[in-house]
Amino acid sequence: MPESHFQEIRNLALFANIEADGFETLMRGAYVHNFPPRIDLITEGDPPDFLHIVLAGSVDLYSSWNGRETSLVTVRPVTTFILAASVNDVPYLMSARTLEKSRIILLPSEDVRAVFAKDSAFARAIVTELAQCYRAAIKSTKDLKLRTSLERLANYLLRQRNRTGSNEFELTLEKRRLASFLGMTPENLSRAFKGLVPYGVKVNGTQIRIADPEVLIRFAKPSPLIDDHST
Amino acid sequence: MPESHFQEIRNLALFANIEADGFETLMRGAYVHNFPPRIDLITEGDPPDFLHIVLAGSVDLYSSWNGRETSLVTVRPVTTFILAASVNDVPYLMSARTLEKSRIILLPSEDVRAVFAKDSAFARAIVTELAQCYRAAIKSTKDLKLRTSLERLANYLLRQRNRTGSNEFELTLEKRRLASFLGMTPENLSRAFKGLVPYGVKVNGTQIRIADPEVLIRFAKPSPLIDDHST
DNA sequence: CGCAGCCTTGACAAATGTCAACAAACGTGG
DNA sequence: CCACGTTTGTTGACATTTGTCAAGGCTGCG
To answer: Which residue of A has its CA nearest to B181?
Structure first.
């Protein structure tokens, strides 16, 4: 792997405090790959051969059952995914595919587990990371169980607004995938956007404008215990 | 705390390999409490003062938003809960209340974090535990997004069957709480039970009988990637 | 016994999904 | 650059699923 990526990986909280020794072990076994869009990276149920790190592009984590499919997470740079499966050496629960052209690092899970066992700084960093993943999953479950699809969309838009810091922004996801992520059909999403017009949401293709955030907030009732993605 | 509980806690995977030193630190600060049924133990949003361990009884983890409420998990002996909030020192995402008379150990989160920082065996055990919690949460999200309420109930019954090893068993939850856990209303659950009669499910109060598991399995299509609660 | 809480049922309403048609956007090869 | 076909997004009509409300029965407990 070109050394140029080393620093990028080092900067991740997950690897920041690893001993030089363990870091080298990980880097020695690492591959970097460039993938075209819409390529399947892993399939749920497979054994966790690699811990993945998205350097560029984006990856969709999804799952299928009985002919249905749903998007669970979108991974953007620079982040790892399927850490839980890697460290516990159990099958992947989600499939992954690239959404765009993506550059991805593959760390053999065996190396990850080896360094994890030896390097307690790494073990502690993994705890922090997993706790965050777990909490994100709980938030997502609350979002699904406590809110209607209209409320989920409204809160999603407000989260995007906070992320970009602007009342006007581009959707970073195809609408069909956004629909799946929010737990509804594409048709339903179309109608949900219409349903938010009275609250000042203007849609033009992938361009979103929130005319008056206060009005939308009053409807969406965002909660830090569901919508804050930092803690 | 009476020493009699020490061994019980030691037997938990989470504490099995801790150094004597760290274990003693944890036990020194620990409280044991007996709670009557339907007592609120914690409220979502509160700072995580304690890591909880259920020794006896059962605890409902639930969440509220905008006047609605949903049950997310039922914790049974001997298990810890709200580990993620404790180690990362961030607010609880779920509220907790006893379902029955319960005996619960409270470990000050500060102690947990202190031992976690010093004892790498404990850190590693926490990783395993959190990875399991995370995966359980992902499974629950898949269950919710990929299945109808009838399918969720059918698979829930099959999981209970596997847990008890018998085609005839008692529901361990009040029906209204089971409904909330499965993401539906009590009325809907009543009808869902009716809807499973053609697949050989007999209900008598809290008593369930699965006449022909094959038939129910053919309908429910259980998957290890959603329904296996061990990995 | 009588009250309170849970469960069930029926009638109805709201939310969401399905299907079909068509329009718009995109990418490819000529 | 255009023409074409493919994919995505939208819309309408309709079906299904799920929730709501109200009533009544059952159960457990003081």
So the answer is: A145
CA nearest neighbour of A104 among A171, A47, A37, A22: A37
For the whole prediction, is pTM greater than 0.90? yes
Give the CA dihedral A175, A180, A182, A186, nearest 10 degrees: 50
- What is the pLDDT confidence band of residue B48, given thresholds at 50, 70 and 90? very high
**Mean pLDDT of the residues in chain A:** 96
Q: Compute the distance between CA of residue B48 and CA of residue B59 in angstroms, rounded to an integer.
A: 17
CATH for the stretch B147-227? 1.10.10.10
Closest residue in A to B151 (Cα–Cα): A66
Amino acid in the structure at residue B4: S
Number of residues that this document lists for chain A: 231
Our CA angle for B169, B170, B173, nearest 5°, is: 140
Q: Which of B134, B149, B155, B223 to mutate to test the interface with A (most CBs of A within 10 A)?
A: B134
Closest nucleotide relative to residue A188's CA, C1' based: C16
How many CA atoms are closer than 13 Å to the CA of A16, on its beta-carbon side? 8
Tell me the residue type at A192.
A
pLDDT tens for A26-74 read 999 999 999 999 999 999 999 999 999 999 999 999 999 999 999 999 9
| CA gap B226, B136 in Å, rounded | 8
Crossing angle for the helix pair B20-28 and B109-118, nearest 10 degrees?
170
User: Are the beta carbons of B127 and A123 separated by less than 8 Å?
Assistant: yes
B188-226 pLDDT, tens digit each? 999 999 999 999 999 999 999 999 999 999 999 999 999
CATH topology of domain B3-143: Jelly Rolls (2.60.120)
Q: How confident is the model at residue B1 (pLDDT cuts 50, 70, 90)?
A: low
Show me where the domains of chain A are located: 3-143, 147-227
Q: CA A192, C1' C25: Å apart?
A: 21
A3 touches strand D (CB under 7 A): no
| Alpha-carbon distances, residue A22 vs A28, A29, A45, A147, B80 (angstroms) | 10, 11, 29, 44, 31
Bases on strand C under 7 Å from any protein CB = 6-11, 15-20, 25
Q: What angle do CA B23, B26, B27 make, to 5 degrees?
A: 85
Given a cut of 80, whether residue A156 has pLDDT beyond it is yes
CA of B136 to C1' of D6 (A): 39
- To which residue do tokens 């002996």 refer? B77
Query: Quick check: B42 pLDDT over 80?
Result: yes
